[in-house]
Design brief:
This protein is 10% helix and 52% strand. It is mainly beta. The chain has two domains: 96 residues, no CATH class; 75 residues, no CATH class. The strands form seven sheets. A four-stranded antiparallel β-sheet has the order 4-5-6-7, with no helix packed on it. It has a four-stranded antiparallel β-sheet with strand order 13-14-17-18, with no helix packed on it. It has a three-stranded antiparallel β-sheet with strand order 1-2-3, with no helix packed on it. The longest helix has 19 residues. It is elongated and about 65 Å long.
Length: 196
């Protein structure tokens, strides 16, 4: 085939490829106090059933609230994961990841609701400077509107889920991103640990 014709065919089909590769973005709507989703033509694709709903994002997923908390759903109304509830909404993304809860354990997911770090921790703090402080055998204690984490053993993971500080410390504090060090204590022994 002539090179010019080949190039013309590619240019003609490129817009079609771009259109077909876009994820379906649904818009939340409210009816009789519950929320569902419509497509760009106004056709109802997910009937009203949620207490609250956010529009689908550019990755083709939406966040909706039901009686057991915030969930991430696809355009078929399949629950992809249960998000951690933070400030009365789904967890915020920090450095491209947010927290989800599965079997009472915490993990991390991306903007497409793909589970990136498995739910292996009793609590995980948001990713900051490429790391998350995690704990096991710790408990959340509510003081009314807020809660705090107490007890257990602490360690750190990186954005890939690799444990960079073993989960064996009573306390990890004073994370210094410039020097890439943290202060940790185990019993009466305090130490400074260098992050990778």
């Amino acid at each position: 085939m002539d090179r010019k014709i080949y190039l013309l065919v590619i240019l003609l089909f490129l817009p079609l490829l771009v259109f077909c590769s876009k994820k379906l973005q649904l818009t939340a709507f409210e009816e009789n106090g519950v929320y569902g989703y419509k497509d760009q033509n106004g056709k109802v694709l997910i009937s009203p059933q949620y207490a609250l709903a956010y529009d689908f994002n550019e990755n083709g997923v939406g966040f909706s609230f039901r009686k057991d908390g915030w969930v991430c759903i696809d355009s078929q109304n399949k629950v992809l994961l249960n998000t951690f509830t933070y400030d009365n909404g789904p967890d915020y993304f920090s450095e491209g990841l947010a927290r989800f809860v599965e079997n009472s354990k915490f993990g991390f997911f991306d903007a497409s609701c793909n589970k990136v770090i498995s739910a292996n921790y009793d609590f995980a703090f948001p990713i900051q400077e490429g790391f998350s402080l995690v704990c096991n055998s710790c408990e959340s204690e509510s003081d009314g509107e807020h809660s705090s984490i107490h007890g257990g053993k602490y360690g750190m993971i990186d954005k890939t889920g690799k444990i960079v500080i073993p989960i064996e410390y009573d306390l990890i504090s004073e994370v210094d991103p410039k020097s890439k060090t943290v202060r940790a204590s185990k019993g009466n022994v305090k130490s400074e640990i260098r992050l990778p």
